[in-house]
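re: ur question from earlier - yeah i can do the single chain one, its not a big deal. heres the input i used so u can compare w yours
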Amino acid sequence: MSDVEASVLAAVRNRIGHLTLNRPGGLNALTLPMVRLLQQHLRTWEQDPNVVAVVLRAAGEKAFCAGGDIRMLYESHMSGNGLHELFLEEEYALDEYIHNYSKPLLALIDGLVLGGGMGLVQGATLRVITERTRMGMPEVGIGFFPDVAASYFLPRLPGELGIYLGVTGIQIRAADALYAGLADWCITSSQIPELDHCLNNMSWTDQPLSALQALLATLGVNKFPGSELKAMQPAIDRHFAEPDLASIRAALLAEPSPQFQDWAEETVDVLDSRSPLAMAVTLELLRRGRNLSLSECFAQELHLDYQWFDKGDLMEGVRALIIDKDKNPAWNPPTLAELDPARVEAFFSDFKSTTCAPQRLVTV
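and the output i got, formated as tokens:
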């Protein structure tokens, strides 16, 4: 087995195709060869009548997938070889394919799932997490915007939760993921061997999805107490419905309720650490996404991608946080007060909502 093939393990057991992301040392961050292997196996199994369902998981206990290979994106843009655009095009095509997959796809999410990892799992038929799961779309922290269809799935969360998660880039725990609707079931990490045993011994009918749902109902829960998002949602809905980021920030600073004041102050501190341009573009992107189809959301994100490496803050964010590691990015502009709204609007000015995202059919 080559190193490329070893980065995604594939096997069929009891008529279930199992795909395992296998770069635990790199927190299973996605590479272009991994994207292509996932696409290849999913297409093969979709056409195979002997495969009734697919399970997607990852090796290691730390992360399901911490996102895309950000260093590669940086180095590709610096070299001018275009690999960063190719990766994003094929990653989005894979994610859209998963959203529309014709067989039940169960994503077993143990550990961190961020960015590109969320792109893989949010289109899955069944999203199963554990108590170790931490979810997030943290892109604004490196000067980017939430992509991989975040402009589709975040705005469709209850109230303003998705706007809050996208603009702040914070991570959430299992109880919050269930409450927000970013996961369907939670099992304990110690139950994973039991889940595998059941999958290996199921007797299949002509309704595999119903069988999987019944199994998860016996093993897991679909809600449990302790959701911080639930406790904070009244304040989130008020503040993150404000018309722009400056208004959101001002409203947070003026939070009148003692029960929400600590959270509001902490949220302002988070906003002040992020790229102002990335946050403002994210706010616009997510609000536009509420009225777009899935394919249009992917297309809009690609439209921004093609501009962002030259005109956005990603390269500076990656330099400061990943390459040089000085943790002191020089955002352009450095503050929200200095951000020209026309600069934000320019990213969207020539996007046509009827555009379709590229659908690359790739052989490995």
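The first strand starts at residue 8 and ends at 13. not sure if urs matches, ping me
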